[in-house]
Amino acid sequence: MSDEDATYTCSPTMRVMPVVLFNLLVYFVIGLPNAIIGAQFVHNTLGFSTAIAASTISLQYIGTAMGRVIVGHRIDVHGPKAILRYGLIFCTISGLLMCLAALIPSFMGLNDTSRYVALGIALISRLFIGWSESCTSTSVTTWNLRRVGPAHSSVAISWNGVTSYGGIAVGVTVGQFLSGLLPNIRLLPVGIFATLLGIGGIILLTFYKAIKPLPSKGKPMSFALAVKKVLPYGAALAAGSVGFGTVNSFLALYYTDNHWTGLGVAFGVFAACFIFMRIFVSGQIDKHGGVPIAYMSLVTEAIAMAVFCLVHNPTGGLIGAALTGAGFSLLFPAMGTMAVRTDGPEFHGILIAAYSIFTDLTIVISSWFMGGLRDHMGWGVMFAVAGVLCISGIAFSAIFSRIPGCGVPKNAA
User: Fold this and answer.
1) Angle 341-349-393 from CA coordinates, rounded to 5°
2) Which residue ranges does UniProt annotate as crossing the membrane (predicted)?
3) How far apart are CA 4 and CA 131, in angstroms?
4) Nearest by Cα to 1 from 203, 211, 148
5) Residue 36 Cα distances to 53, 95, 245, 343, 357, angstroms
6) Looking at residue 369, what is its pLDDT?
7) What are phi and psi of 147, to 5 degrees?
8) How far from the centroid of its chain's Cα atoms is residue 67's Cα?
9) Alpha carbon distance 19, 87 (integer Å)
């Protein structure tokens, strides 16, 4: 595997494929237990509440956010391959912990002690896969930014998203199949497969040639400074993440509460629109600039929330899901291409990490906030508030861009 100094004759898309494969692998592993570890294992097998079962899933995002704080700087200092290796190791550990959690009730019997031990191990497993996500996605993006150069930064960022959501979608399906192989210990085959994939990824990575870290001309950038630099772009991303997180977290419950069929179709359309926009439309970012594309994305998400609010039937749910997927799809790469331009390529790792944490934290916080809003004021108010927050991202982005040191491209500083 040649490094970034090689002469490429293939397209930018083909340049990112060998490295983005690792992102696909890890997100596939993330998807594997999503339909099993919360509802079937924590709730049905261990007997914990639905709230604890849901927290098992969301803990991954907390682990990811924790990891972002430290991995960006380490990528810039040690290079993306070194940190990607840690991501694959954490992925393997997560799989092993799933296996252990699955076996605890069988070895110890189902009692109060075994229930809490198994739950604790399952929760630690979720933290490890969150750390794996932060190491892997940030490393892969930084690595591919070096491979394609600043002129094609949207390609590097866009394909990370395609493999992320595509990997999760396929992983969930495969995980459901695997869980049926051992009906009494459903989580075990999922954990075994996750472990094997992690080990396979570590072995495959040894055949890749590392790229050298770029020398820094000054002192290392702190995470707080990186957050300040990307703040206008992160604010827009956070606003759009509210709409995305609301649909991702509550679409199933929305359909169930209203006794509608077609939930699988709605999720399928949501994912299809997301992937379609990333593959076929993301090139417009480099042509027209990230900010106007991002603002159009936020407007599209706001329209999606309005559809959920005003069209209270399965057709409205389908249209709203499609518009949410299409709107959020280009938001991350559009503002991400702007975020990485706020300083030199030697700081791409920490800038991507600082930018990405806006969506990690927003999804966790908004899921709790929107859930309380729905319980007290209903679906309509919840979707309306999400829509207002989406559109407000334009104003917040514009306001924060006026703060000295925020969002200024390096060549304009």
Assistant:
1) 55
2) 20-42, 48-71, 83-104, 157-178, 190-210, 230-254, 260-281, 293-313, 319-340, 352-371, 377-400
3) 26
4) 211
5) 10, 13, 20, 42, 26
6) 84
7) -75, -30
8) 13
9) 13
Of residues 370 and 309, which shows the higher confidence score?
309
CA 90 to chain centre: 16
**Residue 391, number of CB atoms within 10 A of its CB:** 19
Distances in Å between the Cα of 13 and the Cα atoms of 161, 253, 298, 308 are: 13, 37, 26, 35
Phi, psi of 398 (to 5 degrees): -65, -40
Tokens of 123: 């929760």
* Apex 130 CA angle, 125 and 133, nearest 5: 130
Q: Return the pLDDT at 5.
A: 44
Phi and psi angles of residue 290, each rounded to the nearest 5 degrees, phi first: -75, -40
pLDDT band at 216 (very low <50, low <70, confident <90, very high): low
- pLDDT over threshold 80, residue 176: yes
Cβ within 8 Å of residue 283, ≥6 positions away: 154, 155
Contact by Cβ (8 Å): 213, 347? no
What are the Cα distances from residue 317, in Å, to 114, 253, 307, 370? 41, 12, 8, 17
What six digits make up the tokens of 225? Answer: 């400074």
